[in-house]
Amino acid sequence: MSKESLAQLTDDPKNEVPRLKYIKHTNHKEVIEAAKQGRSIKLEREGVYHTISREDWAEIEGAKKAYKRVSESVRKKFESNNVNVRIANNQKENNRDFKIIVENRYYENGKKEATPENVLESLQESLPSSTNESISYGGESVEVENIPIKFENTKLVKTDYYTKKYDDVPAGAAGTFILGTENQCTYCTPCFVYKPTETTWGWLTAGHCVNANEDERAYQPSNANNGGVGESYKATDTFGYDVAVIENDGRNTKWDVASNSTFNDYMGWPIKGHTPIERIEELCQNSTTVYQQGRTSGRSTARVDSFDDYDVDMYRYDSQTDKGDSGGCYFEKDSNDDVYIIGVHALAVGGNPSWTSRGTHIPRIEQEDPVEV
After folding, report:
1. Which has the higher per-residue pLDDT, 184 or 3?
2. Most CB atoms within 10 A, among 18, 39, 139, 249?
3. Residue-wise burial string across 105-133, b where 16 or more C-beta atoms lie within 10 A, e elsewhere
4. Computed from CA positions of residues 307, 312, 313, 315, in that sequence, does the dihedral angle turn out positive or negative?
5. What residues pair up with 292 in beta bridges, in sequence order?
6. What is the chain's alpha carbon radius of gyration, rounded to the nearest angstrom?
7. pTM for the complete prediction?
8. What is the rounded CA–CA span in Å between residue 316 and residue 332?
9. Pairing relationship of beta strands 371-372 and 189-194 according to DSSP bridges
């Protein structure tokens, strides 16, 4: 960032640090109008910046260094994909914003034998209970001491009802995938889909909603929609990445959040972009109130409990996530009611129903799949 740009953000660069807050659409209205006319124009975006205190910045950077250090150590000792490392909110315990979680993750009814029961004991023996990190900024060094390292067994449950029929399909609306099965899920958000020969529109949902298959038909909310709204173009269902890209082939996307009220189809909360990883770090650090929405349990306020390079954990305040919520949206809403998508819900943590859910965040999705939100 140039000195001129920094000067516009803060008059105290010694104590405040610039950070990327949102990736925002700059031609949102033009995109929406083109969609209504059946045309596709390129989505233009820009970064929106703000500042945080040097102390908060040091906490984030210290946790990130600890995360990398612990991740490298774990990968050297354990080849199993079940063993995972995350950055989590520490609720200011011992005056630290973050902790590092080393988890032995497994699916309910899945084979846990790949990661023996004593794996946590082995991890605890090979890793310290805390770590110290040194952070440098502007020629000065800051010590972030006693970042806790915790160990957990994490059971993950795939959550397979916003059941209204929408003419234009918005974020958080019900979806039916693969007729004749129990794949009743939720659409996360509209997106742009970049194919080798064309640009089109579509939606994101969870990969397991389409059984990680390409070319599966997608409906909203059922087969009453004369053949559906599109089909899966890309789909993956692995630990840490459970995402499907649904390509639109006749029904319009709606860059808004679904309403479940009797009188309104849409909330009037336009989707203006997504949260970069820098913002996800801050949301976790500050326990900022955000939202999760799915067809079964509806919309709930929530917080980002933890995250890693692929996904986020959300703790819901109002209602527990349950079957049918898969594919739904995590999002932040600003003071103008503009929405920024955080991620795609995929899993319940601990069992169904659950207060804690897990899903892939948008920064990782935009790295892995040919989409923009």
Report:
1. 184
2. 18
3. bbeeeeebeebeeebbeebeeebeebbeb
4. positive
5. 300, 330
6. 21
7. 0.89
8. 14
9. antiparallel
